[in-house]
Amino acid sequence: MSERIEDYGLIGNMTSAALVSREGSIDWLCLPRFDSPAVFARLLGDGENGFWKIAPKGKTTSVTRRYLPETAVLETRFETEKGCVTVTDFMPLCHEPEKVDVVRIVEGVSGEVDMTMELSIRFGYGEAVPWVQQRDYGLHAVAGPDTVELHTDLPLEGKNMRTFAHFKVKAGTSVPMTLSYHRTFQVPQFVPDRQQCLNETVTFWRNWVKRGDFKPIPEKWRYAVIRSMITLKLCTFAPTGGLVAAPTTSLPETLGGGRNWDYRFCWLRDSSLTLYALLNGGYREEAAAWRKWLMRAVAGDPRQLQIMYGIAGERSLPEYELDWLAGYEKSSPIRVGNAAAKQTQLDVFGELLDMLHAARCAQLPPEAEAWEVETVLLEHLEKNWQDLGRGIWEVRGDPHAFTHSRMMCWAAFDRAIESAQRFDLKGPLDRWREIRDKIHAEICEKGFDKELNSFVQYYGGKTLDAALLLMPQLGFLPADDPRVLGTIEAIEKKLLKDGFVLRYSTDNVDDGVGGREGAFLACSYWLADAYTLAGRKEDAEALFDRLLSVRNDLGLLSEEYDPVAKRLVGNFPQAFSHLGLINSAYNLCERGGPAQQRAGKDGPPADGHE
To answer: Are the C-beta atoms of 56 and 78 separated by less than 8 Å?
Structure first.
């Protein structure tokens, strides 16, 4: 791959998503869902693994791109010596189960431009070559259960297992194309007028943005927050309300390395931060859908609570490798599925109960069984909060008593007590208080290293952990507590590299994976939040602006940033990073945001406004 991660834009329809390169090539598309096998996998391989490129023939003098304002419709502008064209890419909203369309419209702006269309369809993550036939509407490709049709009036030519078209576009003319997917055993649906689809898609997104509450955000940051909120919406699986961590798999945390994971699933660790971001942004409907997904996903025996689930709540996410793909910039292995789903991570109990408490405070429509589920979870946690685990970062080395995990166990009991008192819910409050206080005392004794003057990643260790920056906003200790201030200072010294925060130091630490990684962008936002709570607003704003500067030209962020190579790394775009951006922006508002709300245990405002 020659394209940098920054060179991609995202389009989607809330069931699937595609990455479009600056050069006009769709190099990643999974059909019909985020977690389905890719039909275009050039992102993780080469041209033999599937792509769809539309671009001028020959040299371009300039390439610029943008999203149409307040939409997820991507427009790429190609300028050549003979003229100028735009390629508009979008995915219409999905109205039929397992049917997905990708629409591309080429429009002439000036002069006359020679264009080339090249299509390579490869099902099964770039491995399966389909049976392709030309039809009166364009092209029909089938491989087992999957069928893709290209609808176009262009004359097509097949060569070397690919499909080509050459055409000219003059000023004022347009050439539309639709790639349509359906299951082979289903009857294909009528492909609607492309311009009508474009108008409907633009209208949908602009109306959706109007629903938001962005007025508290300073004007200089408002575009970034809106774009991040749209990105979260694009990462949402509309049929269930689940939010994928990213629409990609195996984009490396280190170029050429092996820290490559499948992120097309929903993590419980994101639950509270997601709810706060949506509610502060005024998106109550999406917040309620996210809570419903969570309640369905975690239903059952509390001993079987997982750290992540599939987009419809699936529990089985077996991990395997795709050895026919070379990997992004030769970064291998390519993983599908995620074995971390079966890890023990006690922090998810706290994330879940913190989210449910916040939902009550925000007066979301009540979930009849929520409190019953919480009390059952706490019965289990009472007996198991001292178990060892692998922590929020899913280390694949030895389990430990992770300080953050213990803190989230404290949060589980603390939020349950708060909910019971505030909303007149029944529970063994005296016993919960006893356990809560015991956990708090243990963390302060065993999780704090006096020599480092900082809380550490796990009991008995010396490693620092950026997740401990969440301590003041959870209300575990006040932001001005000397131990919190010491932890911030220690993280600044040890984990702040070239202005960005590492999750934890991977040097001389056996996390079961090995190799270094980039700075974790969500952690950098957490440091900005810690600054805000500690009264260091100028430092918070400076760090926030630095983080905004590493977005690509479309306002998108990946999981991490490599300050040495000065490149985005990791899966892209990353919901966790965009959640951090949104929440930090609201934290810096005059009215205060999620960090202040969580610290006060009040939850988000009930109507999205103070």
So the answer is: yes
The torsion region of residue 560 among left (phi > 0), alpha (psi -120 to 50) and beta comes to: beta
Taking the CB of residue 401, how many other CB atoms lie within 10 A of it?
20
pLDDT reported for residue 122: 97
Under 8 Å between Cβ of 457 and 504: yes
**Burial zone of 573 (CB within 10 Å; 0-12 exposed, 13-18 middle, 19+ buried):** buried
CB atoms within 10 A of CB 589: 16
Burial class of residue 430, CB neighbours in 10 A (0-12, 13-18, 19+): exposed
Quote the pLDDT of residue 590: 83
How large is the average pLDDT for residues 459-482?
Answer: 96
3-state SS, residue 445: helix
Cβ neighbours for 256, distance < 8 A, ≥ 6 positions apart? 329, 330, 331
Cα dihedral 357→305→252→8 (10° resolution) = -50
Structural element, H or E, at residue 267: strand 266-267
- pLDDT above 90 covers a percentage of the chain that reads 84
237, 244, 257, 463, 521 from 572: Cα distances, Å = 16, 11, 17, 28, 12
Amino acid at 483: R
All domains of the chain in start order, with CATH:
5-197 (2.70.98.40), 209-599 (1.50.10.10)
Question: What confidence tens digit (pLDDT) does each residue in 382-404 have?
Answer: 999 999 988 888 787 788 999 99
Residues 6+ apart with CB under 8 A from 264: 30, 34, 35, 244, 245, 246, 247, 248, 249, 311
Nearest CA to 59 out of 25, 26, 86, 23 is that of 23
Q: At what angle do helices 521-533 and 537-548 cross, to 10 degrees?
A: 160
